[in-house]
């Protein structure tokens, strides 16, 4: 099976990059796939996350006016498809140009899959929310991460394949530290301002505890909020680390304060280490991953009072943390890469057979 992935980048520290490289590596090493990743406008270099040497990476460039940019994008795609002769083309690009690929390739093309990692809720423009699902219908299959995403898009060619867990190695239990962990880019959508507001309500009651945040971006605006709340030393911001597994293993609780999510991969990653999770029940993903009161805690979106109460409850109840963590680890096993890769293999095989 020859698969061409079209992406904007593979060198970042985000979840999309990790999932893509992990999945492509597994398909090559286990199923014998021949995979090329075609990367737009990113300088060549080592990716942040490991990737199998069997996965080939090629780069191409597009620039200039909107018309010149789109023409260069079209020519780069066509040249790569003609040279590589893929059985399937899989586009992982949340931008508008990614949805135009069916129009940019010739009619005699391989099956096209559009893999979407972001919720439509992230589209603030009403015209984008209306046009994007129409464009996605031109693909042979739209692959989304949750059933909530399928309801958002409302188109018949949609399928659900969640992200796989990273291939973390099982390790001996470590001593949990008295801190809560947050993982994600330092952006408005990730809701760290809401986290700070909630933590300010309960931090004084738990003087031995802190919040540790790992994410890419400028922490200055959040550090100013921390200082204004008198929480210096109680919330700390760190750059992303490749060994995030060790952070999941030592944290007592993971908190996801996002306003919206494409999936909520950090929840699964934490759950695989038996780390109990608290999340806003935001669109979309957390409600598909967590079962409230069984393997995690869901609170109403944006409700900082409820978030503060949930944080204080788990801090003060180690037995509850242990019980949620055990169930979380069991639930996460459904997302191991072997299970998810098999679903991708079935999808690709079906499309190729239909196209034969």
Low-confidence sequence ranges: none
User: What is the CATH superfamily classification of the largest domain?
Assistant: Glycogen Phosphorylase B
Strand order of the biggest β-sheet? 3-2-1-4-5-6-7
Fraction in helix: 40-55%
Gyration radius, rounded: 21 Å
Computed structural class? alpha/beta
Describe the structure.
The chain is of the alpha/beta class and 356 residues long. The protein has 2 domains: 2-164 and 336-355, Glycogen Phosphorylase B (Rossmann fold); 179-334, Glycogen Phosphorylase B (Rossmann fold), CATH 3.40.50. It has 14 helices and 13 strands. The protein has a 7-stranded parallel beta sheet, with helices on both faces. A 6-stranded parallel beta sheet has the order 10-9-8-11-12-13, with helices on both faces. Helix 7 links the parallel strand 8 and strand 9 (210-214). The radius of gyration is 21 Å and the shape is globular.
Task: Sum this structure up briefly.
This protein is of the alpha/beta class and 356 residues long. It has two domains: 2-164 and 336-355, Glycogen Phosphorylase B (Rossmann fold); 179-334, Glycogen Phosphorylase B (Rossmann fold).
Q: Which keywords apply here?
A:
356 residues, alpha/beta, Rossmann fold, 7-stranded parallel sheet, 6-stranded parallel sheet, globular
Blueprint of the fold:
Blueprint: E1 2-7, H1 15-31, E2 34-40, E3 56-60, H2 66-84, E4 88-92, H3 96-99, H4 101-104, E5 112-115, H5 126-136, E6 141-144, H6 147-153, E7 158-160, E8 179-183, H7 192-202, E9 210-214, H8 220-228, E10 235-238, H9 244-250, E11 253-256, H10 265-272, E12 277-280, H11 286-289, E13 297-299, H12 304-315, H13 318-332, H14 337-355
